[in-house]
Specification:
Elements: E1 3-11, H1 16-19, H2 33-45, E2 54-57, H3 61-70, E3 82-84, H4 102-108, E4 114-115, H5 134-149, E5 155-160, H6 162-168, E6 188-195, E7 201-205, H7 207-212, H8 222-239
GO molecular function, one term: phosphatase activity
InterPro entries: His_Pase_superF_clade-1, His_PPase_superfam, PGM_Phosphatase
GO cellular component, one term: cytoplasm
């Protein structure tokens, strides 16, 4: 398989919405003080993030805040901007996983180095291509991988959310649990792009990244991935995390 861009994908930090299932009614929650601490500590733990050339973030508040805090040494007047990218917004249709109107989110971050050029009006309405439906989520993730694989940058950070990161990385291992994700807050995995057998861009977690997580170098086969995907999506649908 031909190697392509290398991406670092960081999950969001601790927010009021992730603190408890009882807080799922909160609309687009921001980071808690603990989440801010996690974000500040994130960059220091992963020196490889020093070489980043592009920072992408879900337009949801907690993701943008995580990107700004975790990568504060990279953003600003003489550095990069955080590019808000609706393709990596969270998967579910819960209120806490739904963003806000573009005008409102722009107003909140207007004095900070955040670029909203890629955010289209209505991005936060969970309908059409943004619907929390299994087929739409799989399609959105595939299109996102396609777009990322064609970027000229070699080191990209994507700050997204635990559930959707399973779709984006095409890795659903251990995703059936009470949090519907195996991604802990403020964690990083490095992923290399390659062309799959059908020439579509596939993502594979690097050996170094797997070793950091205490895993062996061998990941699931394509057949095992598809079987796990079917089982996981069925469970998430039964739990109401996503729709059929």
């Amino acid at each position: 398989m031909k190697s392509n861009n290398l991406s670092y994908r960081a999950s969001e930090s601790y927010s009021a919405g992730s603190a408890s299932h009882a807080n799922h009614h909160l609309s687009d929650p921001e980071l808690t003080p603990l989440g801010e601490e996690q974000a500040h500590a994130l960059g220091a733990r992963f020196p490889a993030l020093d070489n980043i050339q592009l920072i992408l973030s879900s337009p949801q508040r907690r993701a943008i805040q995580t990107a700004l805090l975790a990568l504060s040494s990279h953003v600003g007047d003489d550095g990069l901007q955080v590019v808000a990218w609706p393709e990596v917004q969270e998967a579910s249709g819960l209120i806490c996983d739904t963003g806000r109107d573009l005008h409102d989110i722009q107003a909140e971050f207007e004095k900070l180095p955040v670029d909203f050029a890629l955010v289209e009006p209505g991005w936060h309405i969970k309908q059409g291509k943004w619907a929390p439906v299994a087929s739409k989520l799989l399609e959105r993730a595939q299109l996102a991988r396609q777009w990322l694989s064609q970027r000229p940058e070699k080191e990209i950070v994507v700050v997204s959310h635990g559930c959707f990161l399973h779709f984006l990385t095409d890795d659903l291992v251990n995703a059936v649990n009470s949090h519907a994700t195996d991604w802990a807050n403020a964690k990083v995995r490095s992923v290399a792009f390659a062309n799959d057998v059908d020439e579509s861009p596939a993502s594979r977690e690097t050996i170094q990244s797997r070793e950091r997580r205490g895993l062996g170098p061998v990941a699931l086969t394509k057949e095992q991935q598809l079987e796990l995907q079917q089982t996981t999506l069925q469970m998430w649908t039964e739990w109401g995390v996503i729709l059929a």
